[in-house]
Design goal:
The complex is a heterodimer of chains A (152) and B (187). Chain A is mainly α and 152 residues long. Chain A has eight helices and no strands. The longest helix of chain A has 20 residues. Chain B contains five helices and two strands; from the N terminus they run H-H-H-H-H-E-E. Chain B has a two-stranded antiparallel ribbon with strand order 1-2. Classes of the chains: A mainly alpha (152), B mainly alpha (187).
Chain lengths: 152, 187
């Protein structure tokens, strides 16, 4: 069951890439059925970042993530084909899937071409991490301090 | 925000790897499935014709309905969305092989289609097409030109009485014959 929830989270991440995702608050329960709320929240941070920042840049980061980490095996043939399509402008981000990106190990140059402009990945990544901390650090902390003095 | 970076500002491909997100993919492995998407669905997936969900918004259908989500978790889907197929293929060796085959064959015939030069029509054919187009245009113009001048259809049959004759007696002018129309139209 855990692996299926893992897949469901990835399916949600893929929907973020294609802009077909439900708002995080609608799927939080479903995507944390295995108790891995933190993992679900990482993807929710991407969904929220897409709402707040430049959505195409966030999607570009996701493309990079999927192409590098969705599969441990490098698939040169798949990469060659995808790179050719990106270079010729025959593929758009809304057509991509994790399966299609897995094992392709795209470079940032390809991501920039897909996004249509250059951006600083380090800076954008930091922005998402900050957003994650901003959104969920308060959620994990207790709402009421352990010791409260009312002064009387 | 300035988005044009000099090469020094851009990350080296090996520099920024986003490795801290890699753990989100840990645990992915090949699964055993009892149901697989049909060839037709896989073809639609390879050709980017499969959607994430129905409707204008096209929000992913996998998470909209708890029953559908339950079926997704059980790996027994009745209706495959693009995400469903993607996740299935990602974790199913049989379908990975099939999708690779379909992609290769699609690539092959797309390549053939691109290589084939577009057939240019020969000059007699062009001439014939040009003459035909001119004739059609002339016929349309003539029809439009003649249309207002064409005689209107008679509103009544020859046997029917379309008018009425009345002779009015006037003391000053004598008898005057007045013709009244019985039905609309021209005489």
């Amino acid at each position: 069951m855990e692996i299926r929830i893992e897949l469901a989270r990835l399916a949600y991440a893929e929907n973020i890439l294609r802009c077909t995702n439900e708002p995080p608050e609608m799927v939080e329960d479903l995507l944390s059925l295995d108790g891995e709320l933190e993992k679900a929240r990482r993807w929710f941070a991407f969904a929220e970042a897409k709402r707040r920042f430049d959505p195409n840049i966030v999607r570009g980061l996701l493309v990079y993530l999927f192409s590098h980490y969705a599969s441990t095996e490098f698939d040169p043939r798949k990469r060659e084909q995808l790179v050719r399509e990106i270079t010729e402008g025959r593929v758009r981000m809304r057509e991509l899937t994790i399966e299609r990106l897995a094992g392709t190990r795209l470079s940032w140059e390809h991501i920039f071409r897909l996004v249509g402009r250059q951006f600083n990945p380090t800076r954008e990544k930091e922005k998402i991490k900050e957003l994650y901390a901003q959104l969920y650090s308060s959620a994990s902390a207790p709402a009421i301090p352990p010791e409260v003095s009312y002064g009387h | 925000m300035d988005t044009n970076y000099s090469p020094q500002q851009l990350p080296d491909p090996d520099h920024e790897q986003l490795a801290e997100f890699a753990e989100l993919f840990v645990g992915l492995k090949q699964l055993e499935y009892s149901d697989h998407p049909s060839d037709e669905i896989l073809r639609a997936y390879v050709a980017n014709r499969l959607l994430d969900g129905p409707g204008a918004g096209r929000v992913g259908a996998t998470f909209r309905d708890e029953r559908v989500f339950q079926r997704f978790l059980q790996g027994q889907l009745t209706r495959w969305t693009r995400s469903d197929v993607s996740m299935h293929v990602l974790t199913c060796g049989v379908c990975q092989h099939r999708v690779a085959q379909l992609r290769a064959s699609r690539r092959q015939w797309l390549g053939l289609a691109r290589q084939r030069p577009r057939e240019e029509p020969s000059w007699p054919r062009r001439l014939a097409l040009g003459a035909l187009a001119s004739a059609v245009t002339a016929a349309i113009i003539a029809a439009l030109w003649l249309w207002p001048a064409s005689p209107p259809m008679s509103p009544c049959w020859i046997e029917e009485q379309c008018w009425q004759q009345v002779v009015q007696e006037s003391s000053l002018k004598g008898g005057i014959m007045v013709v009244y129309r019985a039905s609309p139209g021209r005489f």
